[in-house]
Structure formats: structure tokens, C-alpha cells
Amino acid sequence: MKIEQNHIQDSNKKSLQSHQEQFDFLSNNLSKKGADVQGIINKLKDFQVAIPSWALGAGGTRFGRFSFYGEPSSLEQKIQDVGILHALTQTAGAVSLHIPWDIPQDYAAIKEIANGLDIKFDAVNSNTFQDQKDAKETYKYGSLSNTSEAVRQQAIQHNLDVINIGDKLGSKSLTVWLADGSCFPGQNNFQTALQNTENSLKEIYKGLPNDWSMLIEYKPYEPNFYSTVIQDWGTSFMLANACGEKAYSLVDLGHHLPNSNIEQIVSILMSKAKLGGFHFNDSKYGDDDLTVGSIKPYALFLIFNELVYGMQNNPNNPDLAWMIDASHNVKDPLEDLIQSLEAIQEAYAKALLIDQAELKAAQLNNDVVKCQEILQDAYRTDVRPLLAEARLKAGGALSPINAYRSLDVRNQLIDERGKHTVATGL
Amino acid sequence: MKIEQNHIQDSNKKSLQSHQEQFDFLSNNLSKKGADVQGIINKLKDFQVAIPSWALGAGGTRFGRFSFYGEPSSLEQKIQDVGILHALTQTAGAVSLHIPWDIPQDYAAIKEIANGLDIKFDAVNSNTFQDQKDAKETYKYGSLSNTSEAVRQQAIQHNLDVINIGDKLGSKSLTVWLADGSCFPGQNNFQTALQNTENSLKEIYKGLPNDWSMLIEYKPYEPNFYSTVIQDWGTSFMLANACGEKAYSLVDLGHHLPNSNIEQIVSILMSKAKLGGFHFNDSKYGDDDLTVGSIKPYALFLIFNELVYGMQNNPNNPDLAWMIDASHNVKDPLEDLIQSLEAIQEAYAKALLIDQAELKAAQLNNDVVKCQEILQDAYRTDVRPLLAEARLKAGGALSPINAYRSLDVRNQLIDERGKHTVATGL
Amino acid sequence: MKIEQNHIQDSNKKSLQSHQEQFDFLSNNLSKKGADVQGIINKLKDFQVAIPSWALGAGGTRFGRFSFYGEPSSLEQKIQDVGILHALTQTAGAVSLHIPWDIPQDYAAIKEIANGLDIKFDAVNSNTFQDQKDAKETYKYGSLSNTSEAVRQQAIQHNLDVINIGDKLGSKSLTVWLADGSCFPGQNNFQTALQNTENSLKEIYKGLPNDWSMLIEYKPYEPNFYSTVIQDWGTSFMLANACGEKAYSLVDLGHHLPNSNIEQIVSILMSKAKLGGFHFNDSKYGDDDLTVGSIKPYALFLIFNELVYGMQNNPNNPDLAWMIDASHNVKDPLEDLIQSLEAIQEAYAKALLIDQAELKAAQLNNDVVKCQEILQDAYRTDVRPLLAEARLKAGGALSPINAYRSLDVRNQLIDERGKHTVATGL
Amino acid sequence: MKIEQNHIQDSNKKSLQSHQEQFDFLSNNLSKKGADVQGIINKLKDFQVAIPSWALGAGGTRFGRFSFYGEPSSLEQKIQDVGILHALTQTAGAVSLHIPWDIPQDYAAIKEIANGLDIKFDAVNSNTFQDQKDAKETYKYGSLSNTSEAVRQQAIQHNLDVINIGDKLGSKSLTVWLADGSCFPGQNNFQTALQNTENSLKEIYKGLPNDWSMLIEYKPYEPNFYSTVIQDWGTSFMLANACGEKAYSLVDLGHHLPNSNIEQIVSILMSKAKLGGFHFNDSKYGDDDLTVGSIKPYALFLIFNELVYGMQNNPNNPDLAWMIDASHNVKDPLEDLIQSLEAIQEAYAKALLIDQAELKAAQLNNDVVKCQEILQDAYRTDVRPLLAEARLKAGGALSPINAYRSLDVRNQLIDERGKHTVATGL
């Protein structure tokens, strides 16, 4: 199914007047305080977040999985789902594929579907944390870091294949997430494992087209529970430097130890021109993969404050590959993603409201109270009218979640696909 | 010094019209959605938070202390400071004393000063974590839990003395925070330490006037770094049950292990009619004692959601003893406290906006997306006009922090007190 | 397959003399210091740990599962595996079944197999965290805590069925672990969820035979990632008290927030006669389910110190249901379990070496240095000869892991079962 | 006071025979397994750990300080204390001074005292986290990272002064620990703060004598509770690279977020030839500064495993500056330090027992069970006889803690110094 423009406009009608009042009032307030409201709305319109193909079905935990009706069962249907999200929100204009789950059978057809929905192909993701059916080598004891050269070669070749697939679709970056690590002290030699990983990444890097980036993800634990080879930003940064200028670190919000100051990591990576990608989600305990902004929205705002600052002050960073990397165990995945997109835009809009010059002055003055006031003033502002206006201008829904429900999207998907389809993915 | 009503009204003048517009617009919006705006404002006006006497000076860490000019150097001056806070915010109508730091020399005089500023005496706090100059026994190895009966007796007697002092001032509750615990495995016998503590608390409980409450605080670590005798809410709850119906648990936001779900603890304690007090602050790592709402404002909102629910549904809990327990290393303490009071009122107001009936319906329907929407709708609302209105109606400042600065309070205090006074406390 | 006594004795032969020397030397040393070596060996012999049926196959994570050759594919084969462990270690004399994974088809036959291997049936485990194929109701939104009475009834009935099955096999306790909780703020009403759980547990409790115990497990998170209904020992303890004297708390080492002092929890539960069961494993980050003693062996020792103390001083606790609850992603499950059993016995033996009278004296004297010396003296002792002696006397292998390998057990299992069998479980 | 050789020998007498038996038995066992016992003992003898001058008095927390009798009140007395530790343990042959607490008045005299006790001057420590009495600038808002150039200059000059003082005493390295950071979001611009720090460190680096090292410490929080400028090893490593080849990272065991894999950090820093120093202590919650090995001895062993590996395989690292950085709130500081020294030597000895070739073979074979067995075999060995033998050969006490007590050292110190002296420090 596809959501047509006129359906969205119909769904907007009854709220239009109310929206206009809210927006005018807020816009007026913000303009008085010196904010460039139109500039903010333009930035919100331009901000597009990729949806990973594996986030469109129900997620699971090691304790089981409760499926959801109407899941997409093919790549085409996944892209349709992203199209639905994008039509409603106008901020989901990209999809991030995972190989081998999403290998296209007909590239031209897939590209045509995506084009028709205004969806780009963002970073492609390789998978060396599971064994494929007829794989010669096993990743049980690691992939790019494995002590066996044959395993490393298989993993390297897989990444090169992924680049090749992505290239045909118009992707411009490869995301490498390694599950490599160890479950027990002594299992791995840390130095060897890192050296092998560095060597393997360099091999992959050699196969990168000139206009591509390689994004190196880090994670402190899971599925390995004693150590991971790329455990933190420092290791990722070191590897990116070793590979070259097209290699960057990728930050996933859930991949940090308790109490980490993630916004500082983001800021420092940007200051060194080495932040290449970003995975959004939220968490209370570990890599919980919850809806963005559902647990720690202020932390998300602080991160966006650094992102906005970096985009303005650190021109040597690439355009970031933004992606939502969440899982949905108890919600309709599309509704969950709509909530995530809303939270991202909200944090971005609030960060754009911060008067950077005023903040810098307060910092130079060591006026800590004022610094806090400036941040909180932006954060406490109810920016929903700005988000709605940006969507409206772009042809989206004033309230995507309400539109999704009133248009009865899920039931239409069930009608088309049946109840018991199962999406590939985690 | 004392802030006069007319000074506040003067400071409000230039923002009055703007406030009225903001308030009307918001009030209108909220009323349309079914909110009882006037009821919320009345609740905000009624909500009073105690200021602890030790929070009026600069705080320190074990690495040192950077002092602040114009600190209060006597109990009178401390109460004056609370008076300033209350005049501006109209939400700081109580002080919480710490013995022996705040033993009045002239009870009648102290009460008169407090009355004149509309300040009540909230819970009194005992101190058995430091040795006083001429103490016979040392608390180095514990107080109420100590293996020595003489030490325990001294600590019990101190608590009885504190009750006596509080009674003369009109306090109605005793807060017991124990630093007791151990720094090394084996140092303490856990069972003996807990049994001693229970026995000691029962002795203190016997000395409690009929209309008093005993509030038992818990904390997982610091200043002891291996174990604490009352490490968590479960232990505090067990002790409160052992003592009797006038004994309750007290929750301090900073006293939890990483990632604790504090709102659930609050909710469960209220359901058992055993939540007696609350210490506000914020933290990223441990008991950091930062300004309320400066790090995790959404968590504070979720806690208030449970408090509001409990106040409506669990009538057997006492009126809670609300207190700010923060420390101020880099801010003017009074400004810090104003920011804390604002954050508390904000979280409370937002929690009051939650439509509990709608939430319950969504919960029964397992509509998780809707549940989240309901909470986020309340949280995303900019409630500052409600807070300002409540303050205005009560005679406070529209913007307490701006008024504090424009009235040049700190400099007046320095003029009166001198630069190098030092407040008693941590 | 079954390991015959004479095979074990053969495998012991070449190490017998060396063992005797080691044991004599150690025994002599310990006796000089006043230890009752024979008493310790008897206690080690008596100490039996249950093996859960689901731990005999390869474990997995949400990212996948790497299978292992020769996994047991039936209940009979699972019990055979426990028989192998027990023959070698003489400390695995029980199995803990999980329903519905392990419903016997022929009770008499299963009991006969178990009897022949000297295996008892320990606690039976219910499963309300997954939906079974033809279930009427879904546990997606909870089981015993569900807002729907029909779901609760199904979950209650399942637990009663599990009791019935266990009863036929000679089990004497039911372990209830709930995955119930929520993934997002607002999803659950904490008070309702807990009240429903309490009511449901009471229903199950009514169906408990007189000589049975009900063990209530707690866990702070996973698979729910915002809240769990029974989040900590305090909640479990409260529920056990509400149910009655046959209800107890069960401690799983992996089910705690970072930095928890688990030994203190154990101690306090024992002092209140409410510790009923224990799940062993190890972890660095969360519920990692690693081999016991592989990450924090000293913490395990400290826990055993409290267990030993409690067994001596708190006679009102029941015989504890000891069980290993680990998962094995990169090791042969049987080897992993042998390592776990060894670590448990080691910690137990060391705890038995602590001179409790001397420790108490040092505690009373506040001689913290001495307290630590006493614990460390016991911990630093190499107790492996004691473990080997206890096994030898009981008919087990001097070195179970070496015997397992030299007897080529895994290959025999593969020959019998084939490579690609898959055990039921997580 | 000074402990004479003959006193130590007297105290050893009654245990000599028993020691010899233990040592012979163990030595024999280990030799059979292929260990080079004499080589290990030589390494133990060579391993010297610096005692920081501030660790010789009682420590405190922000909640207070319980003093200890007989504390050293001058630099001379501090060095005497180190002399006592070294005489007993033969592993404390260095002192680490802290400026301005330990500025010598008579360099020649101080050096003579130290020489007479066989004590070297290890790394010198600067202090820019406290304001000195007549300081022109305040470090309240940072030192090397401060936005004010005057403050940065003062801090740089202080470090240069410290180098100068250390140079006169024979130190060869400067340890820079910064408390710099922020307590609230927005207070600092992360990029500016880091850039200022880098520039300041480069200025200090310029003043470093050719044969000196600069050791850059990192810490995630405390005394700043929102951010620190050098929050992790990645930042420290980046700064060390920016400064030059004489700059290194320094690892303090307590300066990590919960659950950090410190041994991996150590290993990776060594592989990059950037590990320059090491601060020993132990902790359960944060930077608790407890006795080394008192909480997580296995983690210490795993760290030493990496250190031993690195010392053998990464020749480009400098000789490490080993130091104990603990605090003593409830123990006699000297006894505490003796326990720490013992724990360090124990971990080192056990790490030396690991058969690296066998471990590497097991790793290449992915024999995870075997890898664990190898590590645990070393760890489970009771190496105390090796430690005693190394001390004996070097002229130290068989049991330092017993000798310290039997020689009645503390009472002699009290007699000499009086009860109420207070050492400078935290």
C-alpha cells in the first residue's frame, strides 16, 4: 500500500486551524527572542533519518519474540513501509539495508520503488555476527578479528560484496558493526584481536569507492559478555585513523557503559572530524533499543546541542548518516518509528533554539546558572508546532501518529500481506 | 536582608503583560483539552518544599571546597536566606534543620523570624556520621549499628535530643540518615549490624511524640564504600515496618544504584502507605547532589507522575516531607535552589496535566503507544506560564532568578555579612 | 551414554599419587591452623547443585545462536547429560525441569533413569514468558500481572500444572520467574501490576502441596527494559511474606543492578528466614549467564561466606535449592557446567575455612585489617586438593574436566545423537 | 623511627622453618609444571611500587574525616613511613610527592633521608584542583582547560615548578591529574575545554627534561559531576599523541565507569606504546580508593596478565610508574598499604605463572575452556610462599603485617609524633 497525498491532506484538515494558531503564537514568541523561525523550519525539513530494513518487523529478545500482524516479508514491502513513514513524517527519506537479509533480486525494480516514494539508500550494513546457511567458515569465534585467516577473508569478502550491492543502489557508506570479542577472560588475545581487526578493516577500506565512507561502530558488550574488540569510541577512533580519511566512527546511543557522557564523545569526535554516523534509540539499562526519546529525552537534546554546534563549527565532518536503530517488542513497529522520528525532530528543533552566542558569553563569564538557563529555556519550549509546520510545508501529516491510525494503515497492511508474515532481521 | 513585596511587584511589572498573554493562551489550550487549570494552579501554590539549612552555603567535595561570598554564618541568617527564596518563589515555605549545626540559642526569637517570613520547620535531621568536638564515643565504626552499646546509646540519645529540639520549633518529623556500613568485606557482620540498627531505631521511635513521623533514609554507598546498613528501599521498608506506623521510608533521588527505576520504588512505597519523605536533587553518576532537574528532568516527571497518582489513590500515606538535598560547588547556592524549585514545580505541573483516566484506559487496552503519547503530551507542554501564574497569585516573582539578579540580592548579602563567612554544613 | 565407575577410576590412576601428596600437605597445614578438614570434605560431598535442563544445549543471544554437536534432544538425553556431570563431579545430583519444555511422556521411565544415575528432581520451573503454540491467551503484555483476568488465570493454571508434574517426579519446590514488566514509561500501572501479581501468586500458593516451597525470583530488567514487576529482593520478599511461610525469595546472581552488594542481600534474607533458592552464574555487565566464578570469584566467595554463616546461624531457612543458571555460547555446555561446579565447590570450601569465631572477635574489636586478613587467608588458600579428595571419596574424578576429555565424552554423544540435534530451551 | 634489619630478622625467626617447607613444596610443584620459580622470585624482588606522600595519613570523605594517631606531619616523617613500609615489604622503594603539600625545605637533607632508606623519588604530582592560600587565580572553573588565559598560565607554571622540584630530587616523571570539567550541561564548551587542555599540556611538555615522561591521567567524574575534560583513556591517549613521545597515559584503577574492561584498556595502550603509569587501588562503586585487591582481586590478576604480556611483548613502553593511590578511612594507613603491596605482588606472581605459550595455543585453537583453565590454574595457586621468599631474600619480613604489629610500630610513631598530628593531603 501507499499513502496518497490527498489522504494526508484530508487527515490534516480538521487540525489545520488549531495548528495555525499554535504555530503563529509560538513563532511570534520565538521571533521576539531573536530566533530565526523560518531557518529552523527549513532545517527540520532537510533533516532526514534512515530507517533500517530490520526495524520494520517485531523485534525479539533471547527469551522469545511476540510477532505482529502484517509484517513486511520482502524487500519491496520493507521499502513500502518506509514509504508510509516518509509520507506521513517527511523525515524518513532513506532506508538502510542489511546484507544478506536484503539482497535485491532486481536492482532496477527496487530503485524504482524507492524513487517513487522519495526514499534514498543510506549506509549498507554487513553481517558477520551470524552464520549464513552455506557459509564455509563460522563466525562463532569472531569475524574480522578471528585468528583464522580463512574466516577473516570470508568476512572481508562479505563486506566487499556489501559495498558492491550498496553501490548498485546508490548508497555511499558502509557500516561495520562487529560482534567480535570474547565471553571469558583469556579467550582472546586483546592485542592480536585488535591488530587483526585493523588489518581486515584496511582491506575493506581498499575496496571502498572514492565517494564512500566507512563507518566503524563500537559497543562495550553483547553478544559477547566479557570483551568486545571495538569496545569504545577511543578504539573506533584509533581504527578510523589507521584506515584513512574516508573512515569514521559511528555512535549508537545504546552502545555505552552506564552513565557515559555521550554528548561529550559526539563533540570530541566532531572536533576531530571523525564522526561519520549516528544510530538513534533509547535505553535505561543497556542496548535496550527502545523508542528514541522515550527514556532520556534531555540527554538526546544535549547530544543534539553538540551535533548542531559541530555542524556549524566543524566543517570537516561528512554529512552524517543518521539512522534509527531500535527494536519493537510491544508496539506496532511503524508507530514506534513515528514516535522515534518525532522525538528526534523535537530534540533537533530545541537544540536549534539555543542561542549559541549567548551561551558562549555565559561560558566565558563562568555564569553556570545562566548556561543552564539558556539550555533549559530552549528545552522547555514546546516546539511541536514547529515540527508540525515543517511537516505540513513538506506535504506530511500534522500528526503522523493520528493520521496513521485514522487512515487505518496497519489493517490495510494486514489485508494485503496476511497476519503471519515474518520480517527478516533480529 | 529581607525582600519586600513591593520590590517583587516592581520586578514583575515589565513582564506582566507578556505573562498574561502566555498564560491565557496556554490556559485556553489546556482547558480545551479538559484540564482543570485553576485546580492545577492551586495545587502548585500549595506545594511547599523545605530548604535544608546546610544547602545555603557552598558545598564541597573530598578534593576541596571553593567558598562563596556572603554565606550565612548563623541560624538566623540561614532562615533569612530561606525567606528570600520563599519571597521570590512562594514554594520554599519551610526549613529543615540539622543538629548539631543548627541548635537555636533563643527558640522564641528563631520562631519569630521564621514566622515573619512564613517559614515552617520541617523535618529535623540528626547527625551521627561525624564526631562532635567533645563526644565521648566515636562514630568511626558506626552509630546506631555499632557493636558497642555505649556508641549506640550515644547515637540514640542524640536522636532523642534532636526530636526535643525540633519539638520546640514545631517540627513534626525526624529524618534519620545513617552513614553506617563498612569499607571492606568482613568488617561488619551484616546481620548483627542490621539487628543493632533495628533495636536502636525502636528506641528512638519510643521517644517520638504522637503526632511525629520517623523517616528512615537509605543509601547504597558513600561514605562507606563496601556496604551500608540501610542499603536500599527494601531494608528501609523492613525497618519502618518493624518500628511501627509512624515510621516511614524516605527516598533521596541520589541514593540509588545506576539505572534504578526510582519511580517504581516511589509507587510501591506509596501503595504500602510507607512513603514518608522525599529528598530532591539530580545526578549522573552517584550521589552527585546537583540541581534538581539539571540532568534527568524526564525521570523527575515520571516520579512526580507516581507521586500525583499516590496522593490521589493512597490516602494512608502521610503528607510528604519534601526537601531539596543538593550541594552547590560552582553556583550561588540561592540561585541553585531557585533553579531546583522551578524544576520541581515544573515536573509537578506536568504530572498534573496527565489525564489519569485516559492513561488507565490505554493501559487496560495494552495500547503502549498511546500510553507513551499521553505522558509525552503532558511532558512536552511548556508549563512555565502556569508556574509563573501560581507564583504571581501567591505574591512571588514571575521569574525568580531574574528578580534575584535584578534586586542584586547577593551583593546586599555580602554587604551585610562580609565576604568570608562560612556556613556550617558539608 | 553413561560413564562407568571403572572408567573414572582408570582416569584417576595416574594422578592419584600426586593428589595424595597435595592433599596431605594441605590437610596438614590446615589442621595445624585448627581447621576440621574431614568436616569440610564431608560438607563438600553433601553439597549438590541442580542442573537446569535447558543448560545442556548451546545458548543463544538475540543476535543468534551457534549450535553445538551432540546436544540432547529429549528429556531422557538431558538426564543422561546430568548423569555424566554427576558421575564425574559427584556434585550435580539433581536436575531442574522447565515446563513445557520437559514434560515427561512416561513418568515411571524418567524417574527410573534419574534414579539409576542418582539424580533427584529439584525445583520445577514454569514458563509464562513465551506463548506456546496453541495457547488461548498471549503473555506479550504480562502473565501473572496482566490486566486481563483470562491471561492471569491461564498463567496461574500453568503454574498449578507445573506443580502437578513436579509432584509426580518428586520435586519439592516451584520456581516462579516472571518476565512481566514494561518497556516504556506509562505502559504499566506499577501498583496494579504488583497487586495482580500478588493475587496470582496467592492462588498458586494455595495449590502448593504442604511439603513444597514456592521460590519467587526477582530481576531488574530484561526482557522488559523499562520496569519489571518483581524488580528487586525487597519486592520478592514482600510478596513471599504476603503469600505465607512456604514462600521464599530466590536469588539469581545475574539479576542485580550494577555494583549491587549481593552478599548482603543473601545475608539479610537468611536472617529473616526467607531465602529459598539460589541460581549460580557470573556476569560482567548484566544477566550475562557466564560460567560461575569466571568473572568475579571473590564476590562468589563472599556470598558463600554469608551462606555458610546463615546455614549455621539461621536454622529457619529451608534447605536451599541450588541451581546453575548459565548459558553457553562458546563452550561445550558440559565442560562449562563442570567449570561452574568446580567454582562453586571452591568458593564453598574457602568459605568453610573462615574461622568464624576469630572473625567475630576481630569485628567486635573493629580490627578491620584483621577482618580482611581472615577472609583473604581463607580465599588465598589453594583448596583444589580438598575438592579432589571429596570427589575421590564419593567416586568422582580427580579432575572432571580432564576425565571428560580423556574419556572423549562429547564424541561419544555425537556418535549416539548425531551432530545436528537441538535442545529445547533458550 | 626506623626499622632495623635485625628486628625484622628476629621477627622472621619463628616462621622460618614453616616458610621453608611451604616454599619448597610449592616450588617443587611449580617446577614440575615447568615454571621458572627463581625467575619469578627475581621479578618479584625487582618490582617496586611508589607510595604517594598523601596516603600516609587518614583519608576522608566529603562527610568528614576520622583522624588517626601518629600521622606524619612533615615530609621527613612521610619518607620515614615509606621507609618502614619498604623495610618490611621490600617492595615500596619509592615515594611519589605531591606539590605544594611536599615542597622540601632542604633538598639535600631530604635526599639523604631517602637514600638511607633506599627510597627513590618517583613521579611528582601537581595540584591544580585546589586553590592555594595566596594564589592569584582560582581553579574553581578549571585549570589547564580554563577559558581564562591567566588561570591557564598559572596552572602551567605550577606544573613547570613541580617539574623543577622533582628534578632536584631525581624524579623522572610528572603526573598530571586534572579535576577540570563541569557540573552542569552547558557549563563548558567541550571542544574549547579540550583544546585549551591540549595547548596547556604542550606548554608543560616543552618544559620537560629529556629523560622525563609526562603521565596524563583520566577520570570520568568527581569532583566534577557532569563532565570531565579528560574523561577516558581515548582522550588521554589523544592528548599524549598530540604532546609527543614522552607523553603517556596513566591508568588509575578507580577512574572508570561501571563494568569497564580495564585490562583491555591496559593491553591496548601497551600495544601502542602509550602506557606510562599505573595507580593501584580497589573499588566497588566509583573512585572508592580502597585497599588494592580487597574487592576485585581477580580483575587485578587479569590486569597483571596484560601487564606481564605487555612488558614481554611491547618493548616500546617506558618503565611503568607504579603507585598505590588509595585512601584509608578505617584502617591504620601503614597496615592498609602493607595489605595493598601484598595484593599487588600476589597478582603479579600469579600472572607470572601463566604459561603464555600454552595460552596462545589454546587461543589459536578456540579452546575457550582451556584458556579459562590456564588462567584459573595460575590464579588458584597459593603464591604466598613465593612472595615471602622474595621478601626474605631481599631482607624483608616473612609476614609484613605481623611484623608491623609485633614490632609495635604504630605506638612507637605515636610516642615520637604525638597523637594529634595531621598529615597534609586529602
TrEMBL record, chains A, B, C, D:
Recorded superkingdom: Bacteria
Keywords of the record: Isomerase, Manganese, Metal-binding
GO molecular function, one term: isomerase activity
Entry keyword annotation includes Transport: no
Manganese in keyword set: yes
Name of this chain's protein: Sugar isomerase
Protein's organism: Tamlana crocina
